[in-house]
Amino acid sequence: MKKRERIVRYSAPERINHWIVAFCFVFAALSGLGFFFPSFNWLMNVLGTPQLARILHPFVGVIMFAAFLIMFFRYWKHNLIDREDIIWAKNIHKIAQNEEVGDTGRYNFGQKCVFWAAIFSLLLLLASGIVIWRPWFAGAFPIPLIRLALMAHSFAAVGLIIVIMIHIYAALWVKGTITAMVEGWVTSAWAKKHHPRWYRAVAQQSRPKQQEKRP
Ligand code: HEM
């Protein structure tokens, strides 16, 4: 493919940031499921041994939160809900048939929902995680609060796992999306089809530069 047909979607630091979040998520989710369900106890070995998993799980969680916070401040403006999102949501049945609706910007309504669900559940996971973090912080909280935090932590974790499963499915299902996060680029055809408003904005930005280059 000709390089000029490619549009940069994520820089290398952005991709490294995203994959740190993704790796931390996989390790935290698998070890967490291992703690929670007896039939999944074997999953605690993803972090070495069950004992090591118990020590590392909260630290991995904190790294995931901190790395996601960088993504949050980088992308929150692109994830604000607008009028086009209502059109997208109302036509979700068409989206499921691989049609596109509305004048979508950098992210569509589905991606925006993943974004806000991720920050909400990560905040809940962090706050409840600190309350239940033995031996460092849990001693400072009363038992009823620790019980409540355990429940909140479990619900938030299951919620985030479901959301990220949808996110991964969408990233692989929409052809041409995964290169955005692996190599940093998408094709102009992909951008025109799935994110027409973003495509126009990028094209407009690069136009004066191209004109400058002309002899
Ligand atoms: C583990 C496997 C994962 C895969 C294969 C994956 C794949 C991708 C891809 C391909 C994109 C680019 C989509 C686009 O620009 O249109 C993306 C964006 C993004 N991903 Fe992931 N991801 C994974 C995990 C995660 C996790 C664990 C989180 C957060 C907890 C996350 C949060 C995001 C966010 C916030 C964006 C930018 C979209 C937005 O701001 O709405 N991803 N991901």
TrEMBL record:
Species, as recorded: Paramixta manurensis
UniProt domain Cytochrome b561 bacterial/Ni-hydrogenase: residue ranges: 9-184
Cofactor: heme
UniProt keyword annotation of Cell membrane present: yes
Family in the record: Belongs to the formate dehydrogenase gamma subunit family.
Subcellular location: Cell membrane
One GO process term, biological-process aspect: anaerobic respiration
One annotated GO molecular function: metal ion binding
NADP is among the record's keywords: no
TM spans (from-to): 20-43, 55-76, 113-133, 145-172
One GO cellular component term: plasma membrane
Protein keywords: Cell membrane, Electron transport, Heme, Iron, Membrane, Metal-binding, Transmembrane, Transmembrane helix, Transport
Membrane topology, record value: Multi-pass membrane protein
Protein name in the entry: Formate dehydrogenase O gamma subunit
One Pfam entry name: Ni_hydr_CYTB
